[in-house]
Design goal:
261 residues, alpha/beta, Spore Coat Polysaccharide Biosynthesis Protein SpsA, Chain A, nine-stranded mixed beta sheet, 9 helices, 21% strand
């Protein structure tokens, strides 16, 4: 089966070997697109027989489209460094007739983990994501964060990939309160979106209600509550920081809005 496995990386020495070994079970070519790692990511990737492309970070979607452009195969399997194929996913991919399918992409269910805990509430499962796609017919959107493959005729595989989303509760809240919210605020400001004094509160409250009630976070105990609170913090700070950019010229002038990551 001719599939190119693609991973984007930045300081993923702890993850890259396991990710590439997972991809190698269904891929005959491996491509790593690295955005300036200072650890052993690139060396480890090359030892795992991956071709390393050095590319300064362009944003999520544009960066994830670099690897497919360097692939020699038509079909691409794109994973994040902290994702792994399960045995069922490997088996499902191996049964596909990619030369004759009408689909331009295939989605897998993603098992998102908090630490070693598989979280099934809060919209974290079954988190269907298109990971296998025909690069001649589709690719990732140009979104600078949370980009997805824009397949027009996707199929679904009844199999999972594993995503080690956050190492612990501390990282869950640190990322939500740090670079995730600031990056989103910068993107919104650059696009001309503006906030009011009520925006942080309303969006934060809405995010909590959606996660905890509508996506049944209450069924996952403390983990479900923590994830819901983290989503609220992220949404609140995203709009609070956007409002700060609007109101405080000193802070705004000290930011490089072309440097999102």
């Amino acid at each position: 089966m001719n599939i190119t496995g693609v991973v984007i990386t930045l300081n993923e020495a702890d993850n890259i070997i396991a990710c590439l070994h997972s991809l190698a079970k269904v891929c005959d070519e491996l491509v790593v697109v690295d955005s300036g790692s200072s650890d052993a990511t690139c060396e480890l990737a090359e030892k795992a027989d991956a071709r390393v492309i050095h590319q300064p970070y362009l944003g999520d979607g544009p960066q994830k489209n670099v690897g497919p452009n360097h692939a020699t195969n038509r079909w691409v399997l794109s994973l994040d460094a902290d994702e792994r194929l399960t045995d069922s996913a490997i088996a499902a991919i191996q049964t596909l007739d990619l030369d004759n399918t009408r689909h331009d992409g295939f989605a897998l269910r993603r098992r998102n983990h908090l630490g070693s805990r598989w979280i099934k509430a809060c919209g974290w499962y079954p988190d269907y994501c298109i990971r296998l796609f025909d690069r001649d017919r589709t690719g990732f959107s140009d979104s600078q964060q949370h980009a997805s493959v824009q397949a027009r005729q996707p199929g679904r595989l009844e199999a999972d990939l594993v995503h080690y989303s956050f190492s612990d509760l501390g990282e869950l809240f640190t990322k939500a309160g740090g670079r995730f919210s600031k990056r989103a605020a910068k993107i919104m400001y650059r696009r001309g979106k503006r906030a009011t004094s009520w925006s942080p509160f309303l969006h934060g409250t809405s995010a909590f209600i959606r996660k905890f009630l509508f996506q049944k976070g209450f069924t996952a105990g403390v983990d479900g509550l923590s994830i819901s609170l983290s989503a609220a913090v992220n949404s609140y700070l995203k709009y609070a920081k956007l409002l700060e950019f609007q109101r405080d010229a000193r802070i705004r002038d000290n930011e490089d809005f072309d440097q999102i990551w």
